[in-house]
Structure prediction request, 494 residues.
Amino acid sequence: MNDDSTDFLDEQLGKARRGERAALTLLVQAHQRSVYSLALRMLGTRDLAEDLTQEVFMQMNGNLRTIDSNRHLGFWLRQVTTNRAIDQLRRRARVQMTSLDDETQLFSTEEASDPLLQRHLRTLLEELSAPARAVLLLRYQEDLDPVEIARTLDMPLNTVKSHLKRSLQSLREKTIGMQPMRCEDRSYE
Amino acid sequence: MRKCISLLLFALLTPALALAAPNPKLAIPSFSALAQKATESVTITLDPGLLGLAAKFLDSSDPQDAATKEVLKGLQGIYVRSYTFDKDSAYQQADIDAVRSQLAAPGWNRLVETHSRKTHADVDIYIMLDHNQAIGLALIASEPRQFTIVNIVGAIDLDKLHKLEGQFGVPKLDIDPSKAQAPPK
Amino acid sequence: MSDDIESQMRAALRAVAPREEFSQKLVANVTSRQPPARQSRRGAARLHPLAWWFSASLAASVMLAVGVHQHLQQQRLQQSGLEARREVMEALRVTSQKLNLAYEAVRSQSTSLTDEGNSV
Prediction:
């Protein structure tokens, strides 16, 4: 996010705290994709993702006074979304469902997509524990570095790095033969 | 005198008649000991009030929500208990028998009784009928590391349940309620 | 190439937009809980300043208490409703998963019966 938009959203945050609905609308619209996508990829279905998204923003509305900048708001939304999703996943029975509903768009199709890779990604995500899934999403969807991920999830940095390393390794194994010759692994140590 | 006798008979018979009326709501134990052993558990208790409240938050313009709303119409309760364990045989069949034995009561009819060699899963589905209308559904699924009890109370429209096909992955079972049979005693 | 895999992950995990209808509902629900922006008061009745302040404070306190109470009640109702909706969805999901198990068992039984019939 560039400086101009950051300043603009900081301004909207101030207005929203004073009760201006238009400003609150802009904040919701600015962050809903991120929150919804996190919820969707954590929980796996659209209806659960929508419920969680709504709950998160309702909670945000009640906590605006504690949020001092748009950057802080982004952190707060990611933290609340992933933590609540992890809680929900822990409470739910492990349901091995093959949903016939193909409308749920889990992955982006904006760029030239690789359907085989997407299938592997879906399998990988399903196999991960809730915390590992959250780490992966915060890294590759939200583009956070491991330190920021550790802060967001209140997780030791080494654990974050371990999750990332294992997930990439797993993905590499699943896509072997599809990728060009392996180069040196980027180290997360 | 005759009036007194009639009144007395009515007073005596009414509770008996009430007792005889089938009750689709099962008495499900708390399973607190098993819940502590389980790695994951699902406990859902939705009475008429909560079902009504949930229905208000379903969006009629959304096909899945609309189909769900249709299923909820006429329902009086949905009760789910599901426990997953990290090893085989962590629960005893006797734990579930307290529920299963209630399905031998008058009114319950076994719709489907399946055993899968592939998944080692037993799934029994019972319905309670009142003048050919399903007023209760009970489902007991037991797998090596998981058991699930579902009890749905109220006017269940199996056609509407079928229409959820494609939502939640509900399969078309082609189940004909008229083929339901009373469970063995 | 881990960089290649990572860039593919980033591309595949780019944020996706929710449905337009949901988005509109979300904004409407969130902003409907927002207290309206303060409006200026004009033409206040001429009272003794102290009495005025006392009455105004009392009235404001009562209104605030009622407003906060109603707001909290609405919020609680909203949260309860969303929670109930989620539980309904989960209950139906669990039910359908087990129905699916039964379906698969029935289907594999009829397949094996058909195979036996053909082999005779």
Summary: Residues 94-103, 179-189 of chain A have pLDDT under 50 and may be disordered.
